[in-house]
Specification:
Elements lengths: L6 E9 L5 E6 L2 E7 H6 L7 E3 H24 L6 H10 L4 H13 L5 H12 L5 H10 L4 H8 L6 H12 L5 H10 L4 H12 L3
C-alpha cells in the first residue's frame, strides 16, 4: 500500500511556557509538542525535513514516555498489578498501545508486580476474608490463577474463626441468618460457616 505523506520543514523549536516541553512548528505553523528527551532522541531541530509519518512516530514516542512517567508516579504510591496500572493509564486518556508499552516497561523495573500484589493482598486481608472472596478480588485485579493459588497457600486458616469472633464481639444479640450472611459476604464456604457458627451458637 502506498501513502502520500506530506513533507514539511521544522521552522521553529520553542520551549513551552508552563511545562518542560518543546513546541514544534512546521512550515511556520504549530504542529506538536514533545519532551526535551524525545526531541533529542528523534533529532528534532530547525530546518529538519519531516513527513506526516515522522511526526506520527515522534508523537507516539512522546506519548509512550508520558504514559510511563504517569504510570511510575502512580505505581510508587502503592503495590499494584499490571492490569491496575493499564486501567489507570487508560482512565488518564492514554492510547492502549502507549499504555501497554508503559506497563511492560514498568513491570520490568518492578513497579507493577502481580505476584507481589497477590501476596501483599492476602497478608493484609486474609485475616478477615475467605479464600473465595480473596480469589475473586485477585482475579478482578488481573492476577493469574497460578499466582492466586500460590498466594492463597499463605492465607490464615483461622480467618473464618477470626471473622466470626469479631462479629460476636460487636453484636450483643445474634441473628443466625445475619451471622451467616456476614460470613458468606466475606467469601467463606457455607459448610465451613455452618460448622463454626454451630459450635459458637450451640446449634444442633
Amino acid at each position: 500500500m502506498l501513502y502520500n505523506w506530506r513533507m514539511g520543514k521544522i521552522t521553529s523549536v520553542k520551549p513551552c511556557a508552563k511545562s518542560d516541553r518543546l513546541n514544534i512548528f512546521v512550515d511556520g505553523e504549530f504542529s506538536f509538542a514533545v519532551s526535551y528527551e524525545v526531541a533529542f532522541k528523534c533529532g528534532i531541530r530547525e530546518n529538519v525535513v519531516v513527513s506526516d509519518e515522522d511526526i506520527a512516530v515522534i508523537k507516539d514516542e512522546d506519548e509512550c514516555k508520558r504514559a510511563f512517567e504517569a504510570g511510575i508516579n502512580y505505581a510508587v504510591k502503592k503495590t499494584i498489578t499490571k492490569k491496575q496500572l493499564f486501567d489507570y493509564l487508560i482512565r488518564k486518556g492514554f492510547e492502549s498501545t502507549a499504555a501497554e508499552k508503559a506497563v511492560k516497561k514498568a513491570a520490568e523495573y518492578g513497579y507493577a508486580d502481580d505476584k507481589k500484589y497477590a501476596f501483599a493482598f492476602v497478608a493484609t486481608y486474609g485475616e478477615q476474608r475467605g479464600k473465595r472472596r480473596l480469589e475473586n478480588e485477585l482475579k478482578a485485579a488481573g492476577v493469574s490463577d497460578d499466582i492466586i493459588a500460590e498466594a492463597l497457600q499463605t492465607a490464615n486458616e483461622s480467618a473464618l474463626k477470626n471473622a466470626a469472633d469479631k462479629y460476636l464481639r460487636t453484636h450483643a444479640k445474634i441473628d443466625k441468618n445475619k451471622f451467616y450472611n456476614y460470613l458468606l459476604y466475606r467469601g467463606f464456604d457455607y459448610d465451613e460457616i455452618k460448622n463454626v457458627v454451630g459450635a459458637m451458637t450451640d446449634e444442633d
